[in-house]
Q: What sequence folds into this?
């Protein structure tokens, strides 16, 4: 959908539908605000026209967005907190019901590769299908999250995340809310702390260093998921919003819908094939996927789960 080529009446209808969706959007305000940060309303400049981005992802155009105040988790939902939800509800994640999930090849013990790996993803063979991998067993059936209670929960699908959010009296953030929070009050910067990825040589997020996907030198201190507070927070006091694990957003993904959408509390298209993910992960590297930039975006099907996808929640004021 090219906004420049859409007839004006169609554009007007799309905008009106977007406004209606925004007005009717789901709100959640019964959850506890402990561990959350209150963010006051926008406006802010969303998106980027940065030349090294991914045009097919629809990172631009830059547009002025206004948001209502909200609360957002100061860090992603952790293994310990997700375990509380599971114990309270007896919930079974989709990875557990499917019986398998995707694990990064570098985290599969070399001497167990033949036994554990059932298949790899064509064109991205660093993703391994492993039976018994789930949030309790992040690297496969012989692993556990023991000692990693304060790490982001992973192997959680979008559908799982929405179930947790409903239980907690919260919801997943819209893509606009997520980006507003990630920017930490800085306008049109590449990262939550500015335009330099490693200011003064300091690593401020957990991403890949070295040759992807062969060797992660772990110069930032981690060759996999890190604790949610391993790096300093942004200007809003929000931790781990760049790198570490991707974060699910509420919106359906579309590369150009937002160019025609309302600028007040936008919610994304009414339907789609995949859900928005933001923030990048410990597997992101400049040579392959520099989507750890604040404005970068990608997507995945809502039933997908991997060892590098997590989430955080928001609550309306």
A:
């Amino acid at each position: 959908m090219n906004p420049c080529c859409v007839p004006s009446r169609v554009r007007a209808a799309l905008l009106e539908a977007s406004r209606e969706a925004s007005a009717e959007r789901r709100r959640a305000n019964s959850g506890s605000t402990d561990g959350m940060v209150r963010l006051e309303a926008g406006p802010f400049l969303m998106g980027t026209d940065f030349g090294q981005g991914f045009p097919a992802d629809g990172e631009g155009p830059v547009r002025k967005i206004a948001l209502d105040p909200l609360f957002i988790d100061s860090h992603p939902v952790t293994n310990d907190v997700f375990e509380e939800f599971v114990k309270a509800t007896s919930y079974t994640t989709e990875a557990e019901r499917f019986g398998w999930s995707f694990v990064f090849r570098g985290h599969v013990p070399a001497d167990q590769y033949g036994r554990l790996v059932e298949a790899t993803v064509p064109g991205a063979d660093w993703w391994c299908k492993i039976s018994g991998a789930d949030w309790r067993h992040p690297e496969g059936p012989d692993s556990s999250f023991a000692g990693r209670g304060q790490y982001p929960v992973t192997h959680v699908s979008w559908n799982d995340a929405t179930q947790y959010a409903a239980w907690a009296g919260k919801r997943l953030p819209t893509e606009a809310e997520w980006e507003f929070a990630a920017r930490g009050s800085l306008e049109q910067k590449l990262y939550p702390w500015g335009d330099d990825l490693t200011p003064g040589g300091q690593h401020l997020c957990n991403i890949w260093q070295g040759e992807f996907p062969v060797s992660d030198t772990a110069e930032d201190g981690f060759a996999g998921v890190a604790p949610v507070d391993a790096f300093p927070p942004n200007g809003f006091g929000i931790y781990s919003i760049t790198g570490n694990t991707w974060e699910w957003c509420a919106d359906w993904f579309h590369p150009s819908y937002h160019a025609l959408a309302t600028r007040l509390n936008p919610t994304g298209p009414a339907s789609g094939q995949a859900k928005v993910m933001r923030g990048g992960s410990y597997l992101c590297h400049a040579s392959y996927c520099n989507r750890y930039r604040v404005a970068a975006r990608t997507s995945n099907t809502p039933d997908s789960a991997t060892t590098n996808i997590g989430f955080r929640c928001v609550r309306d004021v």
Remarks:
- The chain has a mean pLDDT of 95.
- The longest helix spans residues 8-23.
